[in-house]
Structure formats: C-alpha cells, structure tokens
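Input structure tokens:
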C-alpha cells in the first residue's frame, strides 16, 4: 500500500493528545443517559441563567484560548449545586453518566448542550491505537484520500477497531477519517445532510445544525461547509 505524504507521517510526532483511558459503557447505561438528556440539558441551562443573573459571571472551567468552540465553555456543575440545581442530573459525568455540558454562546443566549464522552473516548482509543500502529508499521492503515486532507481507514488492517462510530443521536454509522495532521475526526456529514433545508442560507459552518436540532455538540468533527452543491470538510482545520 502506498505511503501517506510526509506531512501526514510527521503528524504523528507533532500531534499532542490528552487521551484518557476508559472502559466500555454498557448499552443500558447509554440508553438511560440518552433518554434523560433533554431534561438534564434544560435543567442545567436554567441553572446557568439564574447563576449568571445573580453573579454576572458564568460557571465554567477555565480553558486555553485555542480550545475548540464546542468544548471551550465547559460548565462546572459544582458551582451550580445545590443553590441553582437541586441535584446533579444522572446523565452528568459527575453522577456516573457519559456527558459533560458546555455553553455555546456565552455573550448571547447561553444555550447549553452536551458533550458525549463515550464518543470522545472511542475516538481517543482509536487514535491511540493508530499511533501504536504507525510506530510498528511506519505508516497509517489508510485506503484513499476522499476529501482534500482526509483519508479513509482500511478496516482490513484495523483488527478489532472500526472505521466508523455510532452517532450519538441516531442509528447512523458515522465514518472516522484521518486528517493529514494525524488527527482522527468523526465525519458528521451524513447527519447534517438530513438537517439541511432547501433554500436555507448555508454560508456558515454547518456543524451548528447539530447544535440547533439536537441536545449535543459535534465533538471530534471537522468544520463542514456547503460548496459546489456538496457538503465539504474544511481541509485546514481538523477540529
């Protein structure tokens, strides 16, 4: 199999990951978390609004300036409980759930959405596996470049790993693609395709359609734009 361009192989050296190990989440826990999530999001959003009204600051964790927008304003639930939340919702990571919560527009409506830690863990697990694979084989197990800067994975070489991930908000299988930087991304285009409205203004990052139509943020996904009648991944920005 042909090797990837040098810049992609070098990406293994330069990529900096904060990968945390974790265990597989039982299906019954996933289903329960998903069922309870919309109520949890609304409870936390109401609490955030009340907190901000009284203190004029947001109950968020301090993060680096270059943190991806869908992770940047993570809510610190300990600041809301017990004065603004009577209890921490079960889907929250702090209660053994699989979600952390973020504020999307801190200077606007301060809408709250959920980060799916199960999805992030699966992506991180495969990213870690790919790093080990390259150390042994000297190249990534890719098939072809399907978008400028993005490569599909060769499932025949992945062993028990999968080249897709189950969508957190439907039954769709979303492709996992490798960016030329060495960063693994979730391709959310199959979901976004179902949310597009004909004639609607599309001159923006269409990942926001997921935010507008679900309780989730599209973690680990590249910016997506409508160009030449197709959904395109931003070749220069993997997250």
């Amino acid at each position: 199999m042909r090797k990837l361009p040098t810049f992609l192989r070098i990406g293994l050296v330069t990529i900096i990951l904060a990968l945390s190990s974790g265990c597989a989440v039982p299906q019954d826990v996933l289903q329960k978390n998903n069922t309870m999530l919309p109520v949890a999001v609304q409870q936390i959003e109401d609490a955030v609004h009340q907190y901000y009204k009284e203190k004029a600051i947001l109950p968020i964790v301090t993060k680096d300036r270059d943190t991806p927008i869908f992770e940047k304003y993570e809510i610190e639930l300990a600041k809301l409980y017990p004065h603004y939340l009577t209890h921490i919702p079960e889907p929250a990571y702090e209660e053994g759930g699989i979600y952390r919560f973020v504020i999307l527009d801190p200077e606007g409506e301060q809408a709250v959405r959920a980060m799916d830690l199960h999805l992030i863990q699966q992506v991180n697990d495969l990213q870690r596996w790919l790093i080990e694979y390259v150390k042994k084989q000297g190249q990534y197990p890719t098939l072809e470049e399907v978008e400028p800067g993005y490569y599909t994975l060769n499932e025949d070489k992945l062993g028990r790993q999968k080249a897709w991930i189950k969508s957190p908000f439907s039954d769709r299988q979303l492709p996992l693609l490798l960016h030329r930087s060495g960063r693994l991304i979730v391709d959310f285009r199959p979901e976004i395709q179902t949310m597009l409205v004909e004639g609607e203004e599309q001159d923006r990052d269409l990942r926001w359609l997921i935010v507008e139509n679900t309780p989730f943020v599209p973690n680990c996904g590249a910016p997506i734009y409508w160009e030449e009648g197709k959904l395109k991944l931003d070749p220069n920005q993997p997250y």
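The two ends are 28 Å apart (CA to CA). The beta strands are 99-103, 112-116, 142-147, 150-153, 164-166, 173-179, 184-186, 224-227, 230-233.
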